[in-house]
Structures are given as structure tokens and as C-alpha cells.
């Protein structure tokens, strides 16, 4: 592959975005692909600082920054993995519009499981906004992260990327459905 791609791992907090994107990153790197992860939990505060007193505006600004960085890296054939809630469907649609090789991966997970995984106490610290999420309308991949292991989710994603021609089989062969 000579062109990059952007994978956006979206879903409510503690649905598995960071864990699964890290594993996909490792898998792609082991296959020889250049990868950069943009995790909204790990970005420098200077990139996601409170640019507005309004929560909605801040969330959109954070996504705008992520999309901008992803576009820059994509332009130089880097495979970008965004791990961010991306609370507004319009922001994910904007990324899809501006990035030709865009894959939305929706990690669906019930509240009781997300609460069990909440070691950072996000659900207690942000009770007014933590649950807000516009569910993905047409993600390329939906993963029920309470039903699949992280390894099974990674296999599902890699298989999709091969089948769609974003990457080649580990042995270098073109995917079976490609000419």
C-alpha cells in the first residue's frame, strides 16, 4: 500500500477504543505499515485545552484538531488510528468527507461493562456529559466489545482492511477478492 488510511475508533468512554487501537497499531506496524495513533486521552493538553467555555464547542474543537492532524499524516501516507469518543456524528461525517480512505469503527458496549472498566472514574467525574453520544449511523465495522475479546476485534478489523484492499495479506499477496 502506498496510500495511508484513517481509522476512527468511536464509542462511549471505556468501550475499548484505546486498547483495541493499540493492538491494531502493533499489528499494522508488525506488517510493515507506518502508523500513528491519536488518542484523545493522550494528546497534549495544549491541543485539547478549553478553547471555549461551552462543552459542545470544546468537543467539536477537539474533533476538528484530530481531523486536521489525521489529514496531515494521511497526506504523507501514514496510517492514522484515532481513538476518540467523537460524540457528534457530524464530526465523524466531516472526517469521512475530507479523508478518502476513512474507516469508522464503532465500539458498542453496555453501560454496566463500561462502568466496570471505569478505573479513571470518568462516569463519576462527568455525570452531566459522559453519556452524551450520537451513535454511529453507518460505521464500516461495529464491534460489540463486551462480546469479543480484544484479539478477536483486532482480527476482525485486520480482515476487513485486507478484504477492502487497504492492506495486503501478511505474506504480501493481494486479498482474495481483489483482481
From TrEMBL:
The keyword Amino-acid biosynthesis does not apply. The keyword Transferase applies. Keywords: Transferase. SUPFAM superfamilies: P-loop containing nucleoside triphosphate hydrolases. Residues 3-125 form the APS kinase domain. Pfam families: APS_kinase. This is APS kinase domain-containing protein. It comes from Cohnella kolymensis.
Amino acid at each position: 500500500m502506498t496510500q495511508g488510511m484513517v481509522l476512527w475508533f468511536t464509542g462511549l468512554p471505556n468501550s475499548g477504543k484505546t486498547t483495541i487501537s493499540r493492538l491494531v497499531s502493533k499489528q499494522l506496524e508488525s506488517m510493515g505499515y507506518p502508523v500513528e495513533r491519536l488518542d484523545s486521552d493522550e494528546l497534549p493538553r495544549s491541543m485539547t485545552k478549553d478553547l471555549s467555555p461551552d462543552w459542545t464547542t470544546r468537543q467539536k474543537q477537539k474533533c476538528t484538531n484530530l481531523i486536521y492532524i489525521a489529514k496531515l499524516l494521511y497526506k504523507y501516507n501514514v496510517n492514522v488510528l484515532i481513538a476518540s469518543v467523537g460524540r457528534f456524528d457530524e464530526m465523524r461525517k466531516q472526517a469521512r468527507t475530507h479523508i478518502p480512505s476513512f474507516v469508522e469503527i464503532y465500539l458498542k458496549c453496555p453501560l454496566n461493562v463500561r462502568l466496570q472498566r471505569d478505573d479513571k472514574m470518568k462516569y463519576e467525574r462527568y455525570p452531566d456529559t459522559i453519556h452524551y453520544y450520537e451513535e454511529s449511523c453507518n460505521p464500516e465495522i461495529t464491534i460489540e466489545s463486551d462480546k469479543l475479546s480484544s484479539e478477536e476485534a483486532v482480527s476482525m478489523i485486520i480482515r476487513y482492511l485486507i478484504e477492502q484492499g487497504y492492506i495486503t495479506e501478511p505474506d504480501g499477496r493481494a486479498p482474495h477478492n481483489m483482481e
